[in-house]
Amino acid sequence: MFCDKAMELIRELHRAPEGQLPAFNEDGLRQVLEEMKALYEQNQSDVNEAKSGGRSDLIPTIKFRHCSLLRNRRCTVAYLYDRLLRIRALRWEYGSVLPNALRFHMAAEEMEWFNNYKRSLATYMRSLGGDEGLDITQDMKPPKSLYIEVRCLKDYGEFEVDDGTSVLLKKNSQHFLPRWKCEQLIRQGVLEHILS
Amino acid sequence: MFVSDFRKEFYEVVQSQRVLLFVASDVDALCACKILQALFQCDHVQYTLVPVSGWQELETAFLEHKEQFHYFILINCGANVDLLDILQPDEDTIFFVCDTHRPVNVVNVYNDTQIKLLIKQDDDLEVPAYEDIFRDEEEDEEHSGNDSDGSEPSEKRTRLEEEIVEQTMRRRQRREWEARSGSGSEPVAAALEKSSRLFPGPMSDRTAPRSPRRDILFDYEQYEYHGTSSAMVMFELAWMLSKDLNDMLWWAIVGLTDQWVQDKITQMKYVTDVGVLQRHVSRHNHRNEDEENTLSVDCTRISFEYDLRLVLYQHWSLHDSLCNTSYTAARFKLWSVHGQKRLQEFLADMGLPLKQVKQKFQAMDISLKENLREMIEESANKFGMKDMRVQTFSIHFGFKHKFLASDVVFATMSLMESPEKDGSGTDHFIQALDSLSRSNLDKLYHGLELAKKQLRATQQTIASCLCTNLVISQGPFLYCSLMEGTPDVMLFSRPASLSLLSKHLLKSFVCSTKNRRCKLLPLVMAAPLSVEHGTVTVVGIPPETDSSDRKNFFGRAFEKAAESTSSRMLHNHFDLSVIELKAEDRSKFLDALISLLS
Predict the structure, then answer these.
(1) pLDDT digits (tens, 9 = 90+) for B532-571
(2) Is A196 an 8 Å CB contact of chain B?
(3) N or C: which terminal CB in chain B sees fewer CB atoms within 10 Å?
(4) Predicted complex ipTM
(5) At A152, which CATH number?
(6) Which domain covers residue B583, as residue numbers?
(7) Residue B65 with chain A: CB contacts under 8 Å
């Protein structure tokens, strides 16, 4: 049946939970594009035949193939766009440096798009708060306190605090640190916020 | 030196700094730590909390963190040894020590710059005067032509400080040399080096003949005991800052009750401290009595109770609680059939049907629960148990949750010492620390279940020890050793559980034996610690008398016995009367101990 492979692409993305980026399915995309090419060529030859040979009974077939082509296009564009949205969310989740595992899941063009997005976000942030700019990726929810209590879940090593000194993050040690320093590490799962 | 004004000299100093908290693994330290954490969070003091369970962990953690912090706070560790010698800190590091262990080491007392003791000075310390200990240094020197009476105190002090600096340099060099040469050595051998360096008291260091200075120091350091609970000290600090809350008061109560449960303080001191806390309780909780302005049911209320000393009785059945409280189990002699019959007589005397008594306490008939305390006290008097009721406190919030202070102590202690090996020792510490917060009630209930298991195991072990006559008199002390195949023996490899077991065993033994001399003997108890390393934990308990002052001499005794037989011993715990010993050296160690004490 036509458009099956395009449906596969969509289903794969639908299965991945919110926020996760599955690997770029280059194979599947190539197959869909091939199918579209085959359909287009068949349609071309049929149109020529219909026009010259006057065979109007080919017109429903041509219409059907045209609908399949449109459907394939819609599915692939939806696939690519949804991936871009997920990649954009990654910037807000992980910061400007992505973990290696995620980088392998992205195609080269997606990487380029990501870099461009980073750049425009950075330019915007710099333009905001006077001279120094404002980091809007922090404090996504309004904070309740300046300092939070965190517990270390794994051995991380030394972690630098604002005044230049460093803190050694060892498993099961608890720390009371400024909120903005800890947010990154909480998202990465190294620290755990304790609400007492 | 002792800190006189806690607010100015301690709190305001650390308020603008980042500090590192070293917290020992016992319930009193946990409570003090929670109070201090609450204060620090209120004032945005950046701190790091590191749990430590022994000297080795303290040293390793200190080495890791010493580059990053200048101010260290030690809770329930470090007062009874020479801190500067063990940790070898830099010049500008400052230690604040809040510890219940006594006697406080004299170097810690008389060091003016680096060690600040958060201990109240009227706490029956009996520290020897400076002149008594440090004057004899000059008399040992060659040119004692200058009469030491005539020289200025400042000269003496500079000479003393030079000597201390010299000693520190020598020890530092020795340690470096050993580190370079013996880095791959077996841990126990290295630990033996450390243990001999740990207590370089007058005995092992000098070969000079005995002098009055040595006698004074020996008398001072001979007995080990405990002072005011650290949680209470921290609560007083909070009160001075006017930042005390009901929650902090509850933690102070739990800290004090922990000292009473583990028999660390005398009955008099406990009653005095309860009086102090009762004033605070009425100050914070007076709105409960007022009919019009009562608080909502969910608010914390603490109240003073003159309640039964049966452990966990409100969370268990009355029968189970009577069987597993050491006080009643020892007096009834519940390991014998005769004892079981007496228990049934006791219950019949009060008119409590067996079926009711074996049910969960909350499910007992209301009519029976109404005058339960008075009934039990009366009947207990008839059976020879005069102290059935004890002054304590209870907390309750919500409709369901009511706890006595001793319940919380047992729950937290079981959480901290549970033998499950799923995590490192610090995992249990974190769990126990969490269970003290009101929002983690599920952990507290889990702790209560573990405590029930622990208490049952304790009583069964005691029963089997007494029935099989495992407690033998060795002359100057009693000795009992738990074999490896004993059920639940892994529960007793941790120090606090083993100490509790030993104390209960001694009480039961005293009640069971007819030999009058044996009733006054102390007890030494051994339990297997680790099968791979072949080590046992040995605990020494002072003799059981009604008016004992809870002073324990086993710390020094163990050390000397190990030295004289060169047994491989590790003094890892902050309590000096608990040691780890290699199983092979056990017999010669015991022989040395016998000859030492007789």
Answers:
(1) 788 888 888 888 876 677 788 888 888 888 888 888 888 8
(2) yes
(3) C
(4) 0.72
(5) 3.40.5
(6) 469-597
(7) 168
